[in-house]
Structure formats: structure tokens, C-alpha cells
Amino acid sequence: MEAILTNTTLLIAAIGVLAFMVSLITQVCKGVGILAKIPTDILVFILSIVITVIAFIAYMQYLHLVIIWYMYIAAVLAGFIVAFVAMYGWEKLSELWKRFYKGAK
Predict the structure, then answer these.
(1) Residue 1 CB burial class (10 angstroms; 0-12, 13-18, ≥19)
(2) Would you say residue 80 has pLDDT above 90?
(3) Tens digits of per-residue pLDDT, 15-63?
(4) Sign of the torsion angle spanned by Cα atoms 93, 77, 47, 22
(5) 64/21 Cα distance (integer angstroms)
(6) How confident is the model at residue 77 (pLDDT cuts 50, 70, 90)?
(7) For the chain, how big is the Rg over CA atoms in Å?
């Protein structure tokens, strides 16, 4: 149980850091050249997925673990979560959590 709690805490922290990085890069890049023509939400999705997959690969290389094909799919899905947090912020995620948690009781 302790391992699950530790891993969940690390995962939430990683999502927060990745969302912050995506928000920062988006603010810097959204007015530059060809990126100014792309809608901001699409830019956030692309950046989130790319940065999340790169962070996942770097983390797995750091741990010297083998990456199996379905782990890439999980990293892309995690990229959508990062994009959601980067676009709508922690308030919306907090509202969803409270609604879900309240519904579970």
C-alpha cells in the first residue's frame, strides 16, 4: 500500500511539473512564426504529448528499464492528462475530483 501511495504522489507531481513546462513553453512559442497560426489548444496537445513521451523515455533510460510498446501508449494517454491540466488548470481538475469523490460515497 505504501508503494502505491508513493508512486501516486510521484505521478501527480510529474503531471504538475510537465503541465507547468507545457504552459511555459506554450506562452513563449504561441506568438512565434508559424506557431502563431496554430490554435493554442492544438499547440498545447502537441507539446503535452511530445514532452510527456520524452520525459517517460528519459525516466526509463535513467532507471535502465526496458520499454515495452504499450508503455508508449500509456505515455501518450498521460500526455492528454498533462494537456488537460495545462489548459484548464488545477481548479478544473479539483472540481472533477471532488465530484467523483462525492459520487463514490
Answers:
(1) exposed
(2) yes
(3) 999 999 998 999 888 888 888 888 888 999 999 999 999 999 999 999 9
(4) positive
(5) 25
(6) very high
(7) 16
Closest CA to 97 of 8, 35, 1: 8
CB 41 within 8 A of CB 67: no
- In the DSSP assignment, the letter for residue 37 is G
Grid coordinates representing 99?
465530484
Grid coordinates of 21: 513546462
At residue 51, the pLDDT reads 97
* Side chain identity, residue 40: T
Question: What does the block give as the cell for 1?
Answer: 500500500
